[in-house]
Amino acid sequence: MPEQIEKQTKQTEMERMLETWEPVIGLEVHVQLATRSKAFSPSACEFGAPANSLTDPVVLGMPGTLPVFNRAALELALKLGVATGSQIRARSRFARKHYFYPDQPKGYQISQYDEPLCEKGHVDLIVGGAIKRIKLERIHLEEDAGKNTHVGAVSHVDLNRAGVPLVEVVSAPEITSAEEAAEFMRALHRLVRWLEISEADMEKGQLRCDANVSIRLRGEDRLGTRTELKNINSFRFVQNAVENEILRQIRIVESGGRVTRETRLWDADLGQSAPMRSKEEANDYRYFPDPDLPPLVVDGALMGGILKKLPELPAARFERYQKQHGLAVDDARTLVSDRGLADYFDALVTAHPGDRSGRMLANWMLTELLGALNAEGKEITQSPVPAATLSALIVLVENGTISGKIGKEIFAETYQTGEAPLAIVDRRGVRQISDEAALWEVIDRVVAANPKQADGYLAGKDQLFGFFVGQVMKETQGRANPSMTSDLLRKRLGR
Amino acid sequence: MAELTRKEVEELALLARLHLEPDELDRIGSELGTILAYFGTIAAVDTTDVPPMTHAVPVDLALRADDPAPSLPVAEALRGAPKRDGDLIVVPAIIPGSES
Amino acid sequence: MKPEFWSITETVKHVITGEITAQQIVDGALDRITFLDREVGAFLEVDKDGARKQAAEIDRKRAAGEPLGSLVGVPVALKDNLVTKDLVTTAGSKILEGWVPPYDATVVTKLRAAGAIIVGKTNLDEFGMGSSTERSAYKQTKNPWDPSRVPGGSSGGSAAAVSAGMCVASLGTDTGGSIRQPAAFCGIVGLKPTYGRVSRWGAVAFASSLDQIGPLTRTVADAAAVLQVIAGHDPRDATSLEAPVPSYVDALTGKVEGLRIGIPHEFFAAADESAGPEEEGLGFTPNPGPEEEGLGFTPNPGIEPEVRAAIERTIAALTERGAITVDISLPHTALALPAYYIVAPAEASSNLSRYDGVRYGKRVDASELLELYRRTRGAGFGPEVKRRIMLGTYALRSGYYDAYYKKAQQIRTLIKRDFDRAFRFCDVVLTPTTPGVAFQFGAKTSPLDMYLGDVFTLSCNLAGLPGINVPCGVTTGGLPIGVQLLGKPLDEPTLLRTAGVIESAVGLGTRRPSGAGGI
Ligand SMILES: [Mg+2]
Ligand SMILES: [Zn+2]
């Protein structure tokens, strides 16, 4: 079946099924924290370094080594905790989670178990023009594992990533569709970048997702048997994997079968998941409080510092941009997709006199500035045009010094040279002509020079009006005030 | 407390990743049974509302500044590794996604 | 006196004045090790080159007039579970055979900085799990006082080396008595500091919440001098204490007037059927009667009469010098042993998970990863270690955690509270260190029999307190007897002061083990 048709068939099948069945999804997302050194030792955190070049005795799990926790990792996790409205535990605890695996040097992972740092928070999704709030069960701190690469009959172990600090964000099982699951990931991605907690580059494995999926009859309260999907490391994979799993489960149940509780591995190339091979009895993590790490205490001073540094969050700005600045949903969403964009927009608003120009400011920024930046592959933070300069340019348009059309040209020049807009306007002599006498003079000249067209217009050829506007603009090198030109021309032409 | 069954002992040995010969399984099984029977005494102690003492001295976790220190040179990091391929450690093939 | 039996003060003085060079001291110590250790078997590794190099450096510094440390020229041995850079460290286990660490333990760094000379690594029960050093994967260490007897353990090599005069001081680790018990068996001083007083960075972990490094020396003053160097906060150990380090050397005033010595009746009445905390509502009998003989072990060994007599003489000597005895109760004492033998194996099973044949140490290869793990660990660990890993794994399994590990940790709280209460009425607690003196090789056949020998030393570790063994006499058979003092957290000064008085009143004086008499 051609891919397109297959997709459509799946779509209709899904729609029918979802009338009966309700998917229940919970996500566990691991986010690497952007620290310079590892969670429990001073070995450096870097991506792409030569194999096993970022280790020390602690990372290697050598005998006699002890963990000492990184303050920056705690601060970053706390930022996320506060930003998600979580309850922060004044005394949380590290625990050991035991399992043998070559990328796990100590035979246990230092994680948090029954006393996590954060509980009962939420993440706000932007669904359409509205905010949907997804509850979080917990956010806890832990260390990353190294990397195993499978090469024929052997596997290779690189421990560079071992010990990198992570937070694990666990959502409540209240995500109800594959799209929403992907949106949750996007919202979390946006949030951690917004807070500068993590680069969250999914290709570098800095944001990784596991999904717990189950289905139940609509209207039922009880949760069905869930499966855990592992290794879904892009927004698209989340959506595909979850959708695939929902479909798989519904098909099993509708054909009289039962969903088995298992862990499944998503294969993005094949577009399907397969159960992971695991020995049931070999899986008992034997959690217990890590005796090497006393309780993690978060005091008032630490929290005060975190709260002071916390920026306004994307969901709040999304709503403010619409309500306070009258932006369209799409523009608001674009602006909050990236902290830099939103901050630039806020700076633009601050720099700009008056407070009714929101739409206009967004328009200039999203069309002219982003257009120019995109063409060069630059980020907003690399913009050669500061918000104050862009505002000054928009003021010139708003107060009629230049026309919008000229404004675009001035923008292009400011962008290229960094020269102030007003200076360019003066140097080029492109100030708009809004002086009535001066305009009359030009109009008289143009009408006198084109008697045939003037007659034609009088005879009802409306399209000739544009001809005269064009002539006036030509005569003034585009500087004539467009609305005054129209008014005066109408008077002069007698219609 | 009853003796541990042979199956329980084998499960424990697997969980701990210990290969035990049959005679070791028997011996350790019976020793554990004896020890656990003796330790059963603590089950009777009333510990309601007694907090567990997870640390011998009550201290808060001291935190480390986020300053990276030089890593071990690879040659030194892997000096004791029983099997290597260049700068990588070699283990028998792990089937992707399996838990060993 | 011969240099090998010099105290630290004597050694340091002679080196500083130039009466002897560090090189000469080291050569003497190495000769003595070569001669004696064939019989005693205290060392797993003798670092001749390293020791001579350190000595040469000291002699150079002295000649150049550079400052010299408080342990300058003192030959020191390290239990082989203390990590030494570029010097093989095995923890007495085959699984670490030939492992050359890339770093030094903090205590090693501190010793070196103070001018001590590391002469070698001493034998121990594998990973510290044992009370006789018979569980070493490498060799047997003999008690210098009687080669048919064990030196105690797990720091048996460290105790024997000091006792026989092969070094002036050594370091051991103490998880449930592993410094104090071998010190008692070998007739020397052994100090287990307050948990967190000495950094554990570089101590191969056995049970992390109990382990502590401490000195083994021939005199109390030497113990104070070594502790002075190794104590203190270490940012690399999150459980190390920030409290300032007092002068331990100055604590040795030789006076005990008005000192309140707590005598816990539970320790002494251990063999009496009548004594017992039933009235405290524990709901069980701590000293099971004969009906429990079917368990295959003696539930309570009781105190050997000669040990009891020596302890009573010690108490009398202290009261003669103005100390006051106070009857105290530590009602949960009988629970210390079962609690310890849950907590310690549980943490050990976790700590020993890292020995998997992947990054260092022994590997038994296999075509499948699971088999590699099982074969490596099956072949690399000895029977006692396997037994404890199994026990600890059992105690941490989900569904068992509350009944075992957590319960044991709650009992620790009860034991700690006992001590907190007792220390309102006394300044130190005095008990025998061990129920009996050094036993014959192979005497303790069942694991529980061995465990029961630790009954007096465990509660100290569970409560995180400092404890010290001081020799207080010898048996008619010529074996040393030790007395144990337990103190308040961080009150090592009072322990040392009291120990110093015991040492001069009832200590061994110039008596040396027969095994050390040859040269
Ligand atoms: Mg998880
Ligand atoms: Zn996790």
Summarize the structure in words:
The complex is a heterotrimer of chains A (495), B (100) and C (519). In chain A, 42% of the residues lie in helices and 19% in strands. Chain A has 495 residues and is an alpha+beta fold. Chain A folds into 3 domains: 13-306, no CATH class; 312-428, no CATH class; 436-493, Arc Repressor Mutant, subunit A. In chain A, strands 1, 3, 7, 8, 9, 12, 13, 14, 15 and 16 form a 10-stranded mixed sheet that branches. Chain A has a 3-stranded antiparallel sheet with strand order 6-5-17, with no helix packed on it. In chain A, strands 4-18 form a two-stranded antiparallel sheet. In chain A, helix 6 (314-323) runs antiparallel to helix 7 and helix 15 (464-475) crosses helix 16. The longest helix of chain A has 20 residues, at 235-254. The mean pLDDT of chain A is 91. By secondary structure, chain B is an alpha+beta fold. Chain B has a domain at 1-46: Histone, subunit A. Chain B has helices spanning 6-15, 22-39, 74-77, and strands at residues 63-64, 84-85, 88-92. A two-stranded antiparallel ribbon of chain B has the order 2-3. In chain B, helix 1 (6-15) crosses helix 2. Among the domains of chain C are: 3-250, Amidase signature (AS) domain (Amidase signature (AS) enzymes, Alpha-Beta Complex); 338-403, no CATH class. Helix content of chain C is 37%, strand content 12%. Chain C is built from 16 helices and 11 strands. Chain C has an 11-stranded mixed sheet with strand order 1-3-2-4-6-5-10-11-9-7-8, sandwiched between helices. In chain C, helix 4 links the parallel strand 2 and strand 3. In chain C, helix 10 crosses helix 12 and helix 10 (336-351) crosses helix 13. Residues 270-299 of chain C have low confidence and may be disordered. Residues 30, 142, 168 of chain A line the site of zinc ion.
